[in-house]
Design brief:
By secondary structure, this protein is mainly alpha-helical. It contains eleven helices and two strands.
Length: about 350
């Protein structure tokens, strides 16, 4: 038993080794150029914090995908990072192509989790609604998940262990929740208390997010994800009550629509108009919510670091991205109809 445990630990240590990531980068033609002022990162339980003040505090980093299962995957991954506290690969030997998230912990890779969850949620959900060759869809899903996972090694942000664990965790969560997707959808769209439950539960999950001894973007990013999901979920419920669900016409599953020049032009138009609407919503609600919270807690407007405080960051981001989800699911479609883009 002890021999097997020892071998297992050796394998885990090997998969988490920074040199394994560096070898992959060198195979891809990416090499670390050392200089006299380059210092190794501190290889301890704590991550490098020197870059915290240079992070983009307001950027929106994590994936935002629809579906309770995918949101569950992201929340579990974010929490596991801050509970396990395993460091990202060290530089040297790894080349770091991203610096904003160096203060975050590494395991599991939420990019690998999101790519797996999004790809396979779409694949499994689409079979009952759209006619397509499952083998082709499976190939696309595997390819997308693989490319995103390998990109995390190429950028030097994750170890091989981080990526493998991310994929496995997503697979377990998707497999465990798959039998209940229809039940969750029915509750989301039809139960009168659905919007209240989702808004309260998701805000509660954001507020009880694990505390760290240093600031990390994970709490804000998690709030962004859950806020968007809460707003979209409430919006879908409103659409259902109004009878405006934009269901495909005909018997399900319907044939996959042909990609024509007209369809491409309409899609591009919807993307551009939607981007403007959502960016405007984000900026307006973010500005108003921060102004109100700064006034409530009597914080000087010049104190940008106050945005990192939980009592300001969580409600501000949650309100902002809940509004984005609501506007995206309710208002954007109405505007598309008005402009003839649907």
């Amino acid at each position: 038993m002890s021999v097997h445990l020892s071998r297992c630990m050796e394998l885990l240590t090997y998969l988490h080794d920074s040199e394994l990531v560096a070898r992959f980068q060198r195979r891809c033609g990416l090499f670390l150029v050392e200089s006299a002022h380059l210092k190794p990162e501190r290889q301890s339980g704590q991550l490098v914090r020197d870059r915290l003040d240079h992070q983009d505090r307001n950027s929106n980093y994590k994936y935002k995908e629809n579906g309770y299962a995918s949101r569950l995957v992201m929340y579990v991954g974010q929490v596991m990072k801050d509970v396990l506290k395993l460091p990202r690969p060290f530089s040297p030997p790894v080349v770091k192509l991203e610096t904003r998230v160096d203060a975050e912990y590494g395991l599991p890779s939420t990019h690998a989790m999101a790519a797996t969850a999004i790809s396979f949620t779409l694949l499994l959900s689409a079979t009952s609604r759209i006619q397509f060759q499952f083998g082709v869809g499976l190939t696309i899903a595997v390819t997308l998940a693989t490319l995103v996972s390998l990109s995390r090694l190429y950028t030097g942000m994750h170890s091989v262990l981080d990526v493998i664990c991310g994929i496995l965790i997503s697979a377990v969560l998707l497999g465990g929740t798959y039998p209940y997707w229809e039940t969750m959808d029915h509750f989301q769209l039809n139960n009168p208390i659905s919007p209240i439950v989702v808004l309260v539960l998701f805000y509660f999950l954001c507020y009880i997010y694990p505390e760290l001894d240093h600031y990390s973007t994970t709490r804000g990013d998690t709030t962004t994800i859950l806020g968007t999901c809460a707003g979209a979920s409430a919006g879908y419920w409103v659409n259902q009550q109004l009878g405006q669900t934009f269901e495909p016409e005909g018997m399900l599953p319907v044939p996959l629509p042909t990609l024509t020049a007209s369809a491409l032009a309409l899609g591009t138009g919807r993307f551009l108009v939607g981007a403007v609407i959502l960016l405007a919503t984000r900026q307006i609600v973010k500005t108003v919510s921060l102004h109100m919270l700064y006034s409530w807690y009597k914080v000087p407007k010049s104190d940008n670091n106050a945005r990192r405080r939980k009592e300001i960051e969580v409600p501000s981001k949650f309100a902002t991205y809940t509004s984005v989800g609501l506007v995206n699911s309710i208002l954007a479609n109405r505007i598309f109809l008005f402009l003839g883009l649907l």
